[in-house]
Design goal:
Layout: E1 10-14, H1 17-20, H2 62-76, E2 80-84, H3 87-90, H4 101-116, E3 120-126, H5 132-138, H6 145-161, E4 167-171, H7 181-185, H8 193-217, E5 222-228, E6 232-234, H9 239-261, H10 266-274, H11 283-288, E7 295-299, E8 304-306, E9 316-318, E10 321-323, H12 340-354, E11 358-362, H13 380-399, E12 403-409, E13 429-431, E14 443-445, H14 447-457
Parallel strand pairs: 1-2, 1-12, 2-3, 3-4, 4-5, 5-7, 6-8, 7-11, 11-12
Antiparallel strand pairs: 9-10, 13-14
């Protein structure tokens, strides 16, 4: 059996602008929806007042410290870094006709720094944030006009960075809008399914228009979608449980089906009919949706189970989703069940369903790290988690799945999305900051830093 990954396989990590950059009001940046969530996706929405502050306002100060961090990523051997552009740095309110030059210039500097070390940028256009101006003044993605605002933003950055960025993603975990509407589509959390799915439709059309724009402006570029990979197993082999798992997996696979195939699948038409949902789909929308993605990217943290048995249907929250726990799996400190083989299973399911290249753009373990007296951080639990998942990626490649690369989530400690905390750490690099915003922001290599360095240099041959 081959022990090394393919020569062309891309190795790296993934971050998001709103979780690392800080500098939330510098150089003309506008207020984003993320800026109104100082306690994370599951926290209440808070209107910003003069003089108040949130943990994400500084985050890890990547905006000013990116040269140091990129150098550390290069030391590990990264060949790819997934990051995002903060839409509000380019169009502060979202509906301007002219972009903010200072914001554009920042990403020029960032991509140039990555180029110094031959690190390929993989750039997400909208990662859990959008200009709050579009929400306040236009109703967010509930308004069809937002499609045009997003297309203008996408065309602006494609044109600016066409020689520097060849790999793009449209929306981060686009299916999460079903579970956190304000974060995903800028709608109130109490919005009904009719409103949410109409907003999602507008977002899917906008994604397709961005694909078209990328192909026009960056002819040698590739643009993909990004799914929250939330594979659900039937809790038992009862046919009712098997059918229920199929139906619930449709909830998120729907987003991939539309972006890869270019039309709404029959099961969603039935779902809309059964729930009294009537989506306004214009003829131009149908033509736009024909512009399908070049590859599929996804996050993978856990799997869950589904059952129709009311007594067994005891759900626990993991990531964004409520899932029935799998009795055969262990869990992290945050209750996320650990299922390395589920990653191989998911890769095979997506490959067989779409026959398009796959990119794992988020996978990692959030844990409480302890700094020893000598300053070292022995995160063997993180090494074990990542090792076991990467072994399963290798197995999937052996199965014949076309996998382009792997970017672990949070290669450097950052602010968590769910609750905006630092105590839940993912990184190979420790950042000295706590949940109260105290700390020096000094970067320190953890034990896993050197482990990942060896994995990359050996092209996976060092995995156990």
């Amino acid at each position: 059996m081959t022990t090394a990954f393919p020569q062309h396989f891309l190795w790296g990590g993934a971050v998001a602008a709103n979780q690392v950059e800080g500098a939330w009001q510098e150089d003309g940046k506008g207020v984003s929806t993320s800026d109104l969530q100082p306690h994370g996706i599951f926290g209440e929405r808070v209107e910003r007042q003069a003089g108040d502050c949130g943990i994400k306002d500084v985050a890890i100060d990547f905006y000013h410290r990116y040269p140091e961090d990129i150098k550390l990523f290069a030391e590990m051997g990264f060949t790819v870094l997934r990051t995002s552009i903060a839409w509000t740095r380019i169009f502060p309110q979202g509906d301007e006709t002219q972009p903010n030059e200072a914001g554009l210039a920042f990403y020029d500097r960032l991509f140039d720094e990555m180029a110094k070390y031959n690190i390929t940028p993989l750039v997400t256009l909208s990662h859990y944030e959008m200009p709050f101006g579009l929400v306040k003044n236009h109703g967010g993605w509930g308004n069809r006009k937002t499609i045009d605002f997003f297309e203008n933003y996408a065309r602006t950055v494609f044109t600016r960075y066409k020689d520097k960025v060849k790999h793009w993603l449209t929306f981060n975990e686009i299916n999460m809008s079903l579970h956190a509407p304000f974060t995903g589509v800028g709608l109130p959390e109490e919005s009904d399914k009719q409103a949410i799915y109409q907003a999602i439709h507008h977002q899917l059309v906008a994604s397709a228009r961005a694909v078209k724009a990328c192909h026009e402006i960056v002819p040698d570029g590739k643009v993909g979608n990004m799914l929250l990979g939330a594979m659900l197993y039937p809790l038992t082999c009862r046919p009712a449980d098997v059918m229920e798992s199929l139906q619930q997996n449709h909830d998120w696979l729907f987003f991939g089906d539309v972006q890869v195939r270019g039309y709404y699948p029959g099961y969603m038409n039935r779902f809309f009919k059964q729930h009294g949902i009537s989506i306004t789909i214009e003829e131009q929308d149908k033509r736009d949706l024909q512009h399908t993605v070049d590859f599929i990217s996804f996050s993978y943290y856990m799997t869950g189970c589904v059952t129709t048995d009311e007594e067994l249907n005891q759900k626990s929250r993991g990531n964004i989703l409520d899932m029935v726990p799998n009795p055969h799996l262990a869990s992290s400190e945050w209750g996320w069940q650990i299922d390395p083989e589920g990653l191989r299973y998911l890769l095979n399911v997506l490959w067989e369903r779409y026959q398009k290249p796959l990119f794992i753009v988020e996978n990692g373990l959030g844990a409480r790290d302890r700094v020893e007296a000598d300053g070292s951080i022995n995160d063997d639990y993180r090494i074990a988690y990542l090792n076991d998942h990467l072994v399963q990626v290798r197995e999937a490649i052996e199965d014949g799945v076309d996998v382009w690369g792997y970017t672990c989530w949070g290669p450097i400690d950052l602010v968590s999305a769910s609750k905006a905390e630092f105590s839940k750490r993912y990184g190979f690099i420790h950042v000295d900051r706590d949940d109260n915003g105290n700390g020096t922001l000094v970067r320190t290599r953890k034990k896993s830093f050197f482990w990942y360095q060896q994995v990359i240099s050996s092209r996976g041959a060092s995995l156990k």
